[in-house]
Structures are given as C-alpha cells and as structure tokens.
Amino acid sequence: MSLSLVVMKKIDIHNTQTCFVQLWLRLELTRQLFKARYKRYCLRHVLQAWFGTAATDDFIWEVCNCATLDEEPIYGYDTLPPPSLQPRVHREILRAIVQISLGLKMHQVKLSALDKAYSIAFPLSRPINVEKKKRTKKKNYVRQKTNIIDSLHFGRNDENELQN
After folding, report:
1. Torsion of CA 79, 115, 6, 60, to 10 degrees
2. Closest CA to 3 of 48, 33, 27
C-alpha cells in the first residue's frame, strides 16, 4: 500500500487515545509523503491531504486560530518540523483538529490521552510532559518537608506557651 493511499483514507476523528495514536502516525506518514513529493510540509497542505474538499479556507483558518503555541498562532503556510523532534507544535495542531472537527471546546480535548498516544506512536522519542512531572514531584517533596518542619516548630512553641 502506498503512502498516498494511507493519507487519502477517510478520517474518523474521536476524542480517544486510539484515535490520537492513528493521528500521530498519519501525521508522520503525511510528512514522509510530502518529503518524497518535494511538497512543503505545512498545516494547510496537511489539512488538504487529510480532509480533501472539506478543508476550506474557513476550516483551515479555524484550525490555525485554535492552534496556538505560547500565545503565538500557527499559520497555514509555516513549515512544520518533524513530529518526532518537536511534538508540542503538533500536539496543538492535533488538539485543534479534534476540537474543530468534533465541535468541542478547548478544554474538552483529552490532552493526557494525546500525550500518551505520542509515546505509543514514537516509542524512542522523549515523552512530552516529562520535565513537568519531575518538577511537580520535587515541589511536592519540598512542600511536605517544610510542612513537617513547620508543624514540629510551631508544635513546640505551642507547648512552651501552654506551660508558661
């Protein structure tokens, strides 16, 4: 089966992890297809390859408007990096595609399932939210330690005040 047939199959989009795995893999296949055909790998061409005639200018504008990274919109003709190297841009693009296709609000798309699907689709790549998890564990450990010290310190002072 050639890459063009894989890309041209109808897309059934759902807000589930299995669908997100398929979208991540399809995104990589689309990138490889565009590279083989010397076509620019940008959001507009990806949407036109996936949705065909349903990818009107309004649909592409809505996806671009919803896909923002660090408060910066992603424009339709911007060249995209490979999904395995810079996954955050593509996570926002896939979130926006699911959001617009299903008519959901921004916070209704399951980002945790999207991140796990990335780890399944690209097992040799680094997971998306690794640093965030490490930071929260360290902060919680420091908070617990200071709470214990504070409770011991304040508990002794309360006992001393009661004895006097």
Report:
1. -50
2. 33
Q: Is 2 helix (H, G, I), strand (E, B) or coil?
A: coil
Phi, psi angle pair for 135, to nearest 5°: -65, -45
Distance, CA of 35 to CA of 11 (rounded, Å): 21
Inter-helix orientation angle 87-102/57-66, to 10°: 130
For the segment 3-60, what is each residue's pLDDT rounded down to a tens digit?
Answer: 454 455 677 888 888 999 999 999 999 999 999 998 989 999 999 999 988 889 999 9
| CA dist 125 → 9, 26, 108, 119, 147 (Å) | 27, 17, 26, 7, 37
Q: What are the structural domain ranges in the chain?
A: 3-128, 130-164
* DSSP 8-state code for residue 42: B
